[in-house]
Write a sequence for this structure.
């Protein structure tokens, strides 16, 4: 792999997007947004049955999912 | 003399491998990624890790979050999706759409369908560009819908989203062909084998299920005829990544000094119909997935994957 010099305009865009991405990532960490997604760690919790409804609506399902 | 003949024989035998070295490497990476993304089948735990790929988070063996589903899942709960957006921005700016070409399970599925020996079709350049806008409209519509659901959830007392039906958490996943093929069909067949779904009274199937199957069928026919059709025209993850891939650090570079024969082999090999030869140095097309088919096709070695910063 060789390195190619990017033009200044593109480089400014890259730095801008990386900065925004990092700020958003830090904000998400501070707000504990990861906890919102951590519920998926197990499929046994009640809220996950609700989550799976997105995929399983439209056909007959066994008792825990009805 | 005998050694030279032997060497020639070996190099002749290895030629198909050396001519397709990037494709072979990519297939290996796709297989390993598919295994890790479905790691629950090997006992890997589900993680709150978000990746910009098309794969249902609620899939039976899925270990990671689909970034576009994560985005909808935050918005429909009245949150600003900082985490999902940061993943899109960071991955898109650093790697471009490389995840689409090398990691995405539905990208790999589309590649598999493209190997079906049927004559592949191409669309004209303006049509290819126009169809790309369908995905953009889809993304805007889904985000707007998620915002409306999120606002209604935040303002309802008690908090409930039941009025929004199956799409209350992730609207797009109710019709997404990727969710249908990797999650819905699995659950349908699994429960059917247990005597609940398959062969049930037709009246028990809802319209949504038929709609999902019809969309899936349409997409499967489309990707068989037009390589990576879903990827370049409809995939919301690809559309969002494409916006940042224009400025991505990792990408393709063409050396016009080496490109002398005018064979056009690179453009013929490109599954997403990028006009490679219209670029002078860096190929910044938002459809390019860095799959490397053009590099394999170029006999003059004019194309390379490079760090462009």
């Amino acid at each position: 792999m060789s390195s190619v010099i990017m033009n200044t305009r593109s480089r400014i865009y890259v730095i801008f997007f990386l900065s925004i991405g990092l700020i958003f990532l830090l904000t998400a960490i501070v707000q504990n947004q990861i906890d919102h997604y951590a519920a998926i760690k197990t499929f046994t919790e009640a809220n996950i049955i609700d989550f799976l409804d997105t995929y399983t609506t439209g056909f007959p399902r066994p008792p825990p999912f009805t | 003399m005998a050694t030279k003949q032997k060497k020639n024989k070996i190099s002749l035998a290895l030629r198909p491998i050396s001519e397709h070295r990037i494709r072979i490497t990519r297939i290996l990476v796709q297989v390993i990624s598919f295994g890790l993304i479905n790691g629950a089948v090997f006992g890997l735990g589900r993680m709150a890790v978000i990746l910009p790929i098309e794969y249902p988070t609620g899939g039976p063996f899925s270990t990671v979050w689909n970034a576009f589903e994560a985005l909808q899942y935050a918005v429909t709960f009245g949150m600003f999706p900082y985490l999902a957006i940061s993943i899109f921005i960071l991955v898109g700016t650093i790697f471009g759409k490389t995840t689409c070409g090398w990691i995405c399970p539905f990208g790999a599925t589309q590649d598999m369908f493209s190997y079906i020996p049927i004559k592949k079709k191409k669309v004209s350049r303006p049509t290819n560009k126009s169809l790309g806008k369908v995905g953009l409209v889809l993304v805007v519509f889904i985000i707007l819908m998620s915002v409306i659901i999120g606002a209604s959830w935040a303002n309802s007392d008690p908090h409930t989203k039941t009025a929004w039906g199956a799409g209350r958490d992730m609207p797009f996943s109710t019709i997404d062909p990727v969710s249908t093929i990797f999650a819905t069909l699995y659950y349908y067949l699994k429960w059917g084998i247990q005597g609940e779904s398959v062969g049930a009274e037709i009246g028990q199937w809802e319209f949504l299920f038929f709609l999902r199957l019809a969309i899936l069928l349409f997409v499967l026919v489309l990707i068989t005829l037009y390589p990576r059709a879903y990827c370049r025209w409809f995939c919301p993850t690809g559309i969002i990544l494409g916006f940042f891939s224009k400025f991505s650090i990792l990408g393709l570079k063409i050396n016009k000094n080496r490109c002398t024969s005018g064979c056009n082999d690179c453009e013929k090999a490109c599954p997403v119909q990028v006009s490679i030869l219209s670029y002078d140095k860096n190929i910044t097309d938002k459809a390019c997935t860095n799959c490397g088919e053009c590099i394999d096709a170029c006999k003059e070695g004019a194309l390379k994957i490079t760090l462009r910063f």
Summary: Chain B has 13 helices and five strands. The mean pLDDT of chain B is 88. Chain B touches chain A through 65 residues (CB under 8 Å).
